[in-house]
Design brief:
By secondary structure, this protein is mainly α. It has helices at about 5-15, 25-45, 60-75, 80-95, 105-110. The protein starts with a helix and ends with a helix.
Length: about 110
């Protein structure tokens, strides 16, 4: 599935099952909540915390939840994420094409 197809799939789901998009500010709050849930799993899986009784490693699901809400926000703001990502990659490449390669902090940990 391409990013464009993902945006179309989410839009179709919202129009079929979701009644309508939540407003942009609500979706921003939901995105923050979902990122927090992802952070909790990351802290337990890769950090020093351990999973509590009843908690599970649902990293894939939490990542998908974050992506879902990003797709919603993109759709409702008229953002083509494929184009936005391409432009962002160009920006990062132009700005950082030597920055990380020349970073001694990264070389020491390789």
């Amino acid at each position: 599935m391409t990013i464009k197809e993902a945006q179309e799939t989410v839009d179709s789901w919202i129009k079929t099952y979701g009644v309508r998009y939540f407003n942009e500010l609500t979706n921003m709050a939901i995105l923050t909540e979902e990122v927090g849930e992802l952070a909790k799993v990351m802290a337990r899986k890769y950090g020093e915390q351990s999973f509590k009784s009843g908690e599970k490693d649902n990293l894939e699901d939490e990542l998908a939840d974050v992506f879902w809400v990003l797709l919603c926000i993109a759709n409702q703001t008229g953002t083509d994420l494929t184009s936005a990502l391409q432009k962002n990659m160009e920006k990062k490449t132009n700005r950082d094409n030597q920055r990380h390669i020349n970073n001694p902090k990264l070389k020491n940990n390789a």
